[in-house]
Specification:
Blueprint lengths: L10 E8 L2 H12 L2 E4 L8 E5 L2 E8 L8 E7 L3 H10 L3 E9 L3 E7 L5 E7 L14 E8 L2 H12 L2 E6 L8 E6 L6 H4 E7 L2 H5 L5 E7 L3 H10 L3 E9 L3 E7 L5 E7 L4
Helix pairs in contact: 1-6
């Protein structure tokens, strides 16, 4: 499960690069009931998104106003520069080199060997998300990839992640779902951060490319999907229930950014 006990390689922050920030703010306020704090013109109107008074994400302008929006997942590191070098040595690429974000922290944007984009965060005054695995916040991640074997080697080298295969008939790529876990103490369940989904040919022909898919927890998946569609979202995969996991759906927001919502199965 995701926690705010950040260690090397743990998901620590998420933000949306939006063509029009005000439009994205309006959409996610309606769909996820977020509150927003605009950091001002000097920060290019980067908005901190909150739920229950705690930060859950951020929204800012993308580098190309004509491009579709996209969510970006950040992983914790104590040394962005050293981890960036490790990414390059392991076959990844640097999209934005390490740089300071004022006193808040230091970051870099990279891509794994299959092309999925992600970022690094070295905390300054901002350690990371204040709320996860609760309604309105990040609760799961999935890596969509064309080369599961290569990305397993990559992330185990860069972040020392562990991988556990689970047979789940009906899934693409032969029915194997690989769960990724942070290294460290505690049970695998306590250290789990997400899963790997192979991009099979029919998915690729439908336009699916390597990316990190983000899941936000909601109280009612179907109601959230209905609200999202009323506010301009497109349904990528209709809501479905997985026993013991919950009910989830894939969407794209009006800017084209992919995201998922999930209402988790009751405990017990």
């Amino acid at each position: 499960m995701l926690t705010t006990d950040f260690t090397h390689g743990a998901p620590v922050w998420v933000d949306l690069e939006a063509p029009v920030v005000d439009d994205a703010v309006a959409f996610y306020r309606a769909v996820l009931d977020w509150e927003f704090r605009d950091l001002g013109a000097e920060a290019m109107h980067y908005h901190i998104c909150s739920a229950g008074g705690r930060s859950v994400a951020a929204i800012g302008p993308g580098p190309d106003p004509a491009a579709a929006g996209g969510w970006k997942l950040y992983f914790h590191t104590e040394d962005v520069d050293a981890t960036t070098k490790a990414v390059e040595q392991a076959g990844g690429s640097v999209l934005v080199p390490p740089g300071d974000v004022g006193p808040m922290g230091r970051m870099a944007v990279l891509a794994d060997p299959a092309g999925a984009r992600f970022a690094l965060w070295q905390p300054g005054t901002v350690p990371g998300l204040e709320r996860v695995s609760e309604p309105g916040s990040l609760t799961w991640t999935e890596l969509y990839t064309t080369d599961p074997a290569a990305v397993r080697r990559f992330y185990s080298t860069v972040f020392d992640w562990e991988f556990t295969d689970h047979e789940m008939p009906g899934l693409p790529g032969g029915g194997t779902y690989t769960v990724m876990s942070r290294a460290g103490k505690g049970s695998v369940e306590e250290r789990t951060i997400g899963g790997i989904v192979p991009i099979v040919p029919e998915m690729a022909s439908a336009g699916v490319t390597p990316l990190w898919q983000l899941y936000f927890a909601v109280a009612d998946c179907d109601a959230t999907v209905a609200t999202a569609r009323r506010h301009g979202a497109a349904l990528v995969r209709p809501a479905m229930t997985v026993e013991g996991v919950g009910r989830w759906a894939h969407l794209t927001d009006p800017s084209g950014a992919r995201f998922s919502v999930i209402s988790e199965a009751p405990a017990g």
